[in-house]
């Protein structure tokens, strides 16, 4: 009897622990799913903007590719969710099966106890059992035994009721999980259809763009010339600021030597001129905010193959972030505006901000909202991102450490 009760409570304990673990895993999947759905919503709005234009463009292809990528990531999560719910249903079936077997064993055991109790409750046999005791101690023990036996039957009734209640609860959980799995399967099927439609659009768009190879090549050559001009501008600004910082440092050291200052560290430095100021920027790798609040990386850092023209590549000194029309570009860190310039063509207006040894570049701006020499704070607007004729709104964002350009994706917070 006691063994059966312990077994029931062990099964119940396992069921409780299983539910707690399942809730934790389910919560993580839900969080991931919401994150991916948010990305889909963003890229979908950007795609609708470029699809609103009649022209077939690389911007539309980028937005379409991103939408496919986001939906494929959601599909992986939905697959994980379906697999998780299938596994949970199996576990739930095992719990229900164990509880049903335990209940059957307890009922059988209780039936045997009831039979024995009925025999023991026969008046003559009960009196005979008690009064056939050889001494008072045995008499007392037999009385105690009959009392404990009655209490054990009452406990068994409680266990039966609790087990039945728990079994009903576990069956209700099972039905809920079945319903959740059905919903997840329907979501997965709907997402699969969406993906197929998008991939058909992608194939059609690539076919259309392939017919425009000549104009695409002209666009690439033009873009490369504009990139070269931007690189020259950045190099000039960075070189000038480094030279100024070094000259200031040398002048400070000479002044200290003349004044015979014992503690060089006690000297006051001007943050906007010193190359060592803003050193804390380097501690924020993978932590700096995105320069726009909305969008995705449409062209990565480094050597990038053209999405249509085979064998043609572009060397990207930063990242291009495709966003929505009217989006504002914002400073990713406190700094000083060191240059505002125009690079005719795709780059348009350019803002270069110094953060001590680091520089950030914001290009492809429609308009600029800061002035040269302004001290600006993290999150402050520097300009509005330009939207081209094809409907593509895209920011070129670069990050430099002295005269070395860095991959911004290693520094930006993960979305």
From TrEMBL:
Protein's name according to its UniProt entry: Septal ring factor EnvC (AmiA/AmiB activator)
Tagged with keyword Nucleotide-binding: no
Signal peptide limits: 1-22
GO molecular function annotation: metalloendopeptidase activity
Species of provenance: Aureibacter tunicatorum
Alphabetical keyword list: Coiled coil, Signal
InterPro entries per record: Cell_wall_metabolism_enzyme, Dup_hybrid_motif, M23ase_b-sheet_dom
The keyword Protein biosynthesis is assigned to this record: no
Ranges where the M23ase beta-sheet core domain occurs: 316-408
Domain of life: Bacteria
